[in-house]
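Journal club prep — side note

Before the paper discussion, L.F. wants everyone to see what a predicted structure for a comparable chain looks like in token form. Sequence:
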Amino acid sequence: MDNPRVSIIIPAYNRYPLLTEAVESVRAQSFRDYELIVVDDGSDDETPRLRNDEDIRYLQIPHCGMPGAVRNRGVEAAQGEYIAFLDSDDLWLPEKLARQVPLLDAQPDVPLIHTREHWRRGAKTVSQKGQKHVREGNIFSDALWKCTIGPSTVLMRKAVFEELGGFDESLEVAEDYEFWLRVTSRYLVSYLDEALTVKRAGDWEQLSEKHGQIEGFRIEALFRLLEQDRLPRDCRHETRAMLQKKLRIWSAGAIKRGRDEDVRGFYDRLEGLNRSGE
């Protein structure tokens, strides 16, 4: 479709059965003014079969294993005013885009709108009773503690994504956490309190589970935000305080796991921030 309103980007790597279900959830959208871009991160399963589907723009890249880089390649190819991400193991309900697009249209100063998620592990619903955080407006403080925006829930202005430089392509995990902090440090965000996105977990490999924990990656993300001057000045003090808090908690467990060298490396970097007056 020429000049679609929305460009939908699905990053994919060796999840063909799940990927086809994600694609079908896009095809089931009541909102039709979109293009669907599947970015294949060098899969060696059946994923390349999608190049034969006329309603899919299939892009294959050499395998890198970096989800931010894969999503960025999709945005570079996107022709829409808005972009939406859908992970290959997640699903959308049919009204997802139809509900989000007019709400974002009505808020020209807002860069993105995200939705509530329905969490599933296999056939079971996963409770979210403990998930209490601010989701709309100024959510930077809450987003510092954990990733409060799920990539598959987002509809975003492409111009803002490009303005902020997209996802950090060198972070294997927590690249979304890092990027949403750059967004929420500068903008208010909008939220649709409807579970229009299904976040699935199962017996397939997920990067967050591959490494056993993700807090070390969040700490790395916070260091980069400060070291590379990626945040407005008024957000840096709070970011540094959160970095120190996370580092204290993570270090205790890391030392027990024999990761003393990693702990020393982080504290050396923290000392470097101290010396620089950051």
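L.F.'s comment for the group: The chain has a mean pLDDT of 93. Keep this in mind when we get to the figures.
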